[in-house]
C-alpha cells in the first residue's frame, strides 16, 4: 500500500518518492515516483482533497489545476542528483594521474540522512546510497569507457554527494611469480637495523638496514619504479635463511604494489631487468589478485633440500644407508630451535621426512637430499639442536653432525604437508 500521507509531512521529490517503492516495477525511481504522484493527484482532485493536492504541489507536481504551492527542497536527496555533472568533473580531475581498468563508487551518506531513511522506511525501499552509487557509476563508466567492479576494483572512488567530498582508494597491484636466490648472504625481506629501526645510526653506517639488500628489494624496486607506486610488500611461500640458496624451480611469491599509478606494465621486460642483477632471478611473472597472496602465505608446500653435512667422526657407507632407512617416512618432533626462539613460540611441531638420499663426499662430509614437509628446520634436523629435534641425523648416527651448506632445490606445487592431506 502506498503511503501518500508522508508527502504532507515531507515534500519528497519524484525520485525520492519513487525510491520508497524502488523494489516494485522494473522502471526508474524518477518515473515511478512521478507516476505515483500523478495517480494520486487525479484521485485527490476527484475527491477534492485540497490538503493532499497542496502536498503534491509542494513536492513538485505541476499538473494540478488551481494549486500553485511553492516547491520545497526535498529533505532526503537535497538535490544531490542535480550535482552529478559537477561531481563528475571533480572525479575526472582526481583520477587523471592513475591508470586503471575497473572502478567502484563508494558512496558516503551523512548520519542525519541515514536516520531520516529509517524514519520513512518502507518494505520496498531502495537506499539513496544504492541509487547514487549506481547512477554515478553508470555516468562515469560511459564517460571514461571503463567497467565498474564490485569484487576487485583497481580504484575505489569515495564520494559524499552531500558535502561534495571526494577521495580515492587506489587498490594494490599484485604480481606473482617464482624466485631463485643464487647466492648466500641475502635475506628474503628488508631487514632494518635493530638499533635505529631504519632511521640510520653508527651501527648500520647510517643505512637503516642490517643487510644492504634483500630478495624483496631486488625484485620490488624495479617493479615499483615501473608502476610509480608508493611502496611495496613481498609475500613468499615460506622463507629460506640468509645463508641458504633457493635454487631449482624457485620459491612462489607475490609482490604487492601500494597505490600504483601505472598498471599496464610489460612483465617480460621486468623479468629481464630484474635478472640482470645476477644474485636473484624471477620466473613466470604474471598479474594476480589479492586472494593469491593469501594462498601463497597460508598453503604449506613440501620441499626438497640439498645439505652438505660435516661429521666430527668418519661416517661409513653402511651408516649412511642406515640413515636413509631410519628417516624414510619418519615423523620428526621438533621443538622450536634455539636460534629462532626470540621470534617464534616455544612449541613442539610435528613434520615428516618422506625420503632421504645420502652420499659420502669424503671422510667427514656427506651430502643429503631431503624430501620433507615445509616448516621443518633442516639445520636442526641434522644437528639435533641439543635434543630439541627428535630424531635427528646426529642421534641416528650417534655422532655430532652440523649443516655446512644448505640449498632448497625444489618447492613442490600441489603437495601440501602430510598433516593437511
Helical amount among residues, as a percent range? 25-40%
Mean of pLDDT: 94
Uncertain segments are none
How much β-strand is present in the residues?
25-35%
Compute the number of strand runs. 14
Q: Decide which structural class fits the backbone.
A: alpha+beta
Q: What is the alpha-carbon Rg in Å?
A: 33 Å
Q: Between the first and last Cα atoms, what is the distance in angstroms?
A: 58 Å
Give the quaternary arrangement of the chains: single chain
Q: Give the overall silhouette.
A: elongated
Order of helices and strands: HHHHHEHHEEEEHEEHEHEHEEEHEHE
Number of helices: 13
How would you sum up the major sheet?
10 strands, mixed
List the helices and strands and how they pair.
Layout: H1 6-9, H2 14-19, H3 29-46, H4 50-58, H5 84-95, E1 102-107, H6 111-120, H7 128-144, E2 147-148, E3 155-160, E4 165-170, E5 173-181, H8 215-227, E6 231-236, E7 245-258, H9 267-275, E8 280-288, H10 290-298, E9 303-311, H11 317-327, E10 330-335, E11 348-360, E12 365-372, H12 378-383, E13 389-390, H13 393-397, E14 401-411
Parallel strand pairs: 1-2, 1-3, 7-14
Antiparallel strand pairs: 3-4, 5-7, 5-8, 6-7, 9-12, 9-14, 10-11, 10-13, 11-12
Helix pairs in contact: 3-4
Amino acid at each position: 500500500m502506498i503511503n501518500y500521507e508522508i508527502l504532507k509531512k515531507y515534500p519528497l521529490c519524484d525520485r525520492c518518492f519513487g525510491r520508497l517503492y524502488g523494489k516494485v516495477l522494473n522502471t526508474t525511481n524518477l518515473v515511478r515516483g512521478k507516476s505515483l504522484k500523478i495517480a494520486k493527484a487525479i484521485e485527490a482532485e476527484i475527491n477534492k482533497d485540497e490538503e493532499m493536492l497542496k502536498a503534491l504541489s509542494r513536492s513538485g507536481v505541476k499538473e494540478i489545476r488551481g494549486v500553485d504551492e511553492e516547491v520545497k527542497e526535498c529533505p532526503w536527496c537535497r538535490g544531490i542528483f542535480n550535482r552529478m555533472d559537477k561531481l563528475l568533473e571533480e572525479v575526472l580531475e582526481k583520477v587523471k594521474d592513475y591508470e586503471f581498468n575497473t572502478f567502484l563508487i563508494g558512496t558516503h551518506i551523512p548520519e542525519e540522512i541515514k536516520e531520516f531513511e529509517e524514519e520513512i522506511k518502507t518494505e520496498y525501499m531502495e537506499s539513496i546510497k544504492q541509487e547514487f552509487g549506481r547512477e554515478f557509476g553508470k555516468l562515469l563508466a560511459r564517460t571514461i569507457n571503463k567497467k565498474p567492479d564490485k569484487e576487485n576494483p583497481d580504484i575505489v572512488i569515495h564520494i559524499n554527494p552531500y558535502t561534495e567530498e571526494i577521495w580515492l582508494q587506489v587498490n594494490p597491484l599484485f604480481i606473482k611469480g617464482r624466485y631463485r636466490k643464487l647466492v648466500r648472504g641475502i635475506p628474503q625481506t628488508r631487514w632494518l637495523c635493530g638499533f635505529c629501526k631504519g632511521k640510520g645510526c653508527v651501527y648500520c653506517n647510517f643505512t637503516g638496514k642490517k643487510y644492504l639488500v634483500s630478495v624483496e628489494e631486488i625484485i620490488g624496486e624495479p617493479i615499483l619504479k615501473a608502476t610509480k607506486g608508493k611502496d611495496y610488500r613481498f609475500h613468499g611461500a615460506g622463507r629460506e635463511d640468509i645463508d641458504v640458496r633457493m635454487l631449482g624451480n624457485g620459491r612462489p611469491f607475490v609482490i604487492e604494489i601500494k597505490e600504483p599509478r601505472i598498471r599496464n606494465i610489460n612483465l617480460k621486460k621486468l623479468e629481464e631487468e630484474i635478472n640482470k642483477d645476477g644474485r636473484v632471478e624471477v620466473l613466470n611473472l604474471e598479474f594476480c589478485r589479492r586472494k593469491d597472496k593469501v594462498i601463497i602465505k597460508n598453503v604449506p608446500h613440501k620441499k626438497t633440500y640439498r645439505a652438505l653435512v660435516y661429521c666430527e667422526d668418519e661416517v661409513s657407507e653402511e651408516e649412511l644407508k642406515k640413515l636413509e632407512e631410519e628417516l624414510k617416512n619418519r615423523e620428526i618432533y621438533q621443538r622450536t630451535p634455539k636460534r629462532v626462539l626470540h621470534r617464534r613460540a616455544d612449541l613442539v611441531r610435528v613434520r615428516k621426512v618422506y625420503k632421504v638420499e645420502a652420499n659420502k663426499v669424503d671422510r667427514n662430509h656427506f651430502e643429503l637430499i631431503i624430501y620433507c614437509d615445509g616448516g621443518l628446520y633442516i639445520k636442526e634436523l641434522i644437528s639435533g639442536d641439543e635434543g630439541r629435534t627428535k630424531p635427528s641425523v646426529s642421534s641416528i648416527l650417534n655422532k655430532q653432525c652440523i649443516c655446512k651448506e644448505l640449498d632448497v632445490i625444489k618447492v613442490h606445487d600441489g603437495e601440501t604437508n602430510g598433516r593437511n592431506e
